[in-house]
């Protein structure tokens, strides 16, 4: 090996060890300080660039979850103008599986204000029963139906 | 001097054209969410910058923390998603983080704060610049080693081939490995010409960086090995001196990925590497034939591209010929090296695994066409290729029903031309200039029809005709 090559390699390896050591310690320290809160902020915060809708019938989640068996909940929004949004959510992707928790998560995904269901007098049902307690738990394969006008009871 | 200025203007215009066709509708086509890897890479970079820990999407076993989540970036759960939530993992160690750092950092500085902010509009900007750099590097290699005409041709082919343009908008590590491999070709060819050490040093650093985009960047190491073997013609002292020098510089850079993995969790890193190795070999035993006849964008999105299929034919023609100059062999070594990587690292037949073959196929195609322009060699194959591409480009633009009114012109014109071509070849009639003019006109039309087709591809055209 020529002296020039030796000289270069010596400097290169010295710089490399300094950089590699710094990299290791900085990343290791970050991992130790990492928290679920930081992660939730990244994954759960709705983008400021995404349009917010006031019409839950505008968007639905496409397709059905295939890898969860019957651990899902169907969410249907029915509007009196004839439009509807019919979605299926995997329950394992939702932390709080109460009625309110599921609606909050769905509203986060679609980007509408879940309080709207109360302020605009939506009528919601879980498995064809009127929701009286929003803290009620959702079971696997349940269906949530919400109507913007009081539905005519089925005969 | 005037000649050089003219050449510079032409080459620079081609680079601008390549950039402009890549930029048009880049955030719409390919449809965001058709490959969630695009988001994953950017999330890795963004989370590294925000928290110091890489968070991304992975389907691999061995991840320490894994949970399902709906992150509706680009509203892709309303358009292309299949219904399942995304599997979020941390620390995400599936691949080295360099591409994620580039796209994630760009998104961060453009204002992205959370994962949902990383829309295709932001994150694809750096990759279209990288795609344009790849075109410029392919042109530079051709210019330095084959001349101006080859450089123009490779720029126009690689810059305007529709599938290549669309594919180069995708955030896939292969799109970042391509400029690395092209840079290795350029630097190594300059090292062979000048014997200056710094060209070998730059080659080594780029080869090391390529593996920080994806481990398949190891293709650069294989390429250097083959090229040095061909240059020295045997394994001698000089070969070992150069190759060891190259490895001492490049391998520590690759090893940074191990240090990166160890900083988070060496056991998880080991599990993920093993899990990556044991992936389902979905490309199957017919992978090479599939590579030639089926071009894809994602796993299931087939977009056969006549330019690529015919470039494989020229590759075989070029391989069978004995080359005296090492620079004529370099694209073959690059292709051969990537073929080894493709076979070895192969898993599912995702379209992007094949992207790195294309610039080298086009370099060979451009070389053959330029030889038929300048030295009247390979004229028959050049004509055959031109005719095939012309036919396919026309059929992309004109529906078969509409074509019927031109059918008489087509069958008369094409058959008479083939007849005259064969006759002139048998009778040894000197038609060098006529041939050049015809080929020149043909290729003008080919690039124009490429451009026309590309300008038609918008979201409606995609859903109605391609998707």
Tell me what the structure shows.
The complex is a heterodimer of chains A (155) and B (467). By secondary structure, chain A is an alpha+beta fold. Chain A folds into 2 domains: 3-44; 72-147, Ubiquitin-like (UB roll). Chain A has helices spanning 3-32, 36-44, 99-110, 116-119; strands spanning 72-78, 84-90, 123-126, 129-130, 142-147. Chain A has a 5-stranded mixed sheet with strand order 2-1-5-3-4, with no helix packed on it. Chain A is elongated. In chain A, 20% of the residues are buried. The mean pLDDT of chain A is 91. Chain B has 467 residues and is mostly helical. Chain B contains 20 helices and 3 strands. In chain B, helix 4 (120-145) packs parallel to helix 15. The longest helix of chain B is centred in the middle third of the chain and has 28 residues, at 237-264. Chain B is globular. At the A-B interface, helix 1, helix 2, strand 2 and helix 3 of A face helix 2, strand 2 and helix 10 of B.
Give the helices and strands, then pairings.
The complex is a heterodimer of chains A (155) and B (467).
Chain A: H1 3-32, H2 36-44, E1 72-78, E2 84-90, H3 99-110, H4 116-119, E3 123-126, E4 129-130, E5 142-147
Chain B: H1 2-23, H2 37-51, E1 56-57, E2 65-69, E3 86-90, H3 98-109, H4 120-145, H5 148-160, H6 162-167, H7 173-194, H8 197-213, H9 219-232, H10 237-264, H11 266-277, H12 287-293, H13 306-320, H14 326-345, H15 358-374, H16 379-397, H17 400-403, H18 407-426, H19 432-456, H20 459-466
């Amino acid at each position: 090996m020529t002296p020039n090559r030796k000289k270069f390699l010596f400097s290169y390896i010295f710089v490399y060890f300094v950089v590699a050591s710094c990299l290791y310690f900085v990343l290791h320290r970050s991992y130790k300080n990492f928290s679920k809160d930081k992660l939730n902020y990244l994954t759960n915060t709705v983008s400021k660039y995404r349009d917010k809708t006031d019409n839950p019938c505008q968007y639905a989640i496409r397709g059905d979850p295939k890898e969860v068996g019957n651990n899902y909940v169907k969410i249907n929004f029915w509007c009196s103008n004839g439009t509807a949004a019919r979605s299926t959510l995997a329950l394992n992707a939702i932390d709080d599986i109460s009625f309110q928790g599921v609606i909050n998560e769905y509203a986060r995904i679609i980007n509408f204000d879940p309080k709207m269901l109360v302020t605009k007098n939506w009528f919601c049902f879980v498995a064809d029963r009127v929701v009286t307690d929003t803290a009620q738990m959702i079971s696997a394969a349940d269906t949530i139906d919400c109507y913007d006008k009081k539905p005519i009871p089925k005969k | 001097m005037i000649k050089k200025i003219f050449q510079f203007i032409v080459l620079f215009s081609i680079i601008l054209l390549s950039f402009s066709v890549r930029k048009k509708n880049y955030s719409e086509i390919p449809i965001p969410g058709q490959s969630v890897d695009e988001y994953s890479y950017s999330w890795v970079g963004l989370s590294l910058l925000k928290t110091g820990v890489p968070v991304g999407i992975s389907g691999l076993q061995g991840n320490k923390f894994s949970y399902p989540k709906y992150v509706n970036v680009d509203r892709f759960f309303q358009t292309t998603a299949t219904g399942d939530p995304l599997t979020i993992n941390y620390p995400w160690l599936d691949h080295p983080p360099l591409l994620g750092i580039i796209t994630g950092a760009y998104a961060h500085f453009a204002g992205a704060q959370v994962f949902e902010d990383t829309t295709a509009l932001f994150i694809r900007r750096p990759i279209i610049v990288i795609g344009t750099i790849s075109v410029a590097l392919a042109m530079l290699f051709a210019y330095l080693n084959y001349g101006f005409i080859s450089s123009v041709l490779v720029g126009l082919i690689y810059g305007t081939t529709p599938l290549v343009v669309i594919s180069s908008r995708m955030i896939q590590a292969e799109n970042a490995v391509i400029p690395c491999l092209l840079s290795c070709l350029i630097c190594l060819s300059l090292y062979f010409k000048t014997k200056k050490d710094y060209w070998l040093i730059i080659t080594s650093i780029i080869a090391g960086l390529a593996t920080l985009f994806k481990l398949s960047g190891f293709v650069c190491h294989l390429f250097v090995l083959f090229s040095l073997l061909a240059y020295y013609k045997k394994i001698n002292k000089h070969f070992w001196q150069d190759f060891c020098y190259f490895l001492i510089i490049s391998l520590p850079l690759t090893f940074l990925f191990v240090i990166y993995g160890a900083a988070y969790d060496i056991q998880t890193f080991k599990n993920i590497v093993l899990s990556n190795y044991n992936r389902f070999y979905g490309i199957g035993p017919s992978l090479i034939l599939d590579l030639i006849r089926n071009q894809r964008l994602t796993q299931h999105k087939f977009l056969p591209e006549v330019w690529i299929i015919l470039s494989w034919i020229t590759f075989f023609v070029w391989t069978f010929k004995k080359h005296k100059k090492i620079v004529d062999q370099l694209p073959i070594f690059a292709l051969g090296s990537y073929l080894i990587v493709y076979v070895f690292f192969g898993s599912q037949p995702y379209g992007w695994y094949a992207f790195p073959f294309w610039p080298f196929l086009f370099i060979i195609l451009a070389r053959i066409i330029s030889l038929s322009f300048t030295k009247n060699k390979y004229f028959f194959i050049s004509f055959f290729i031109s005719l095939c591409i012309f036919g396919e480009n026309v059929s992309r633009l004109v529906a078969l029903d509409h074509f019927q009114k031109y059918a008489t012109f087509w069958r008369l014109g094409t058959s008479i031309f083939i007849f005259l071509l064969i006759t002139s070849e048998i009778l040894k009639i000197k038609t060098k200039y006529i041939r050049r003019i015809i080929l020149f006109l043909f290729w003008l039309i080919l690039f124009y029809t490429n451009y026309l087709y590309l300008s038609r591809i918008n979201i409606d055209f995609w859903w109605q005709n391609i998707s």
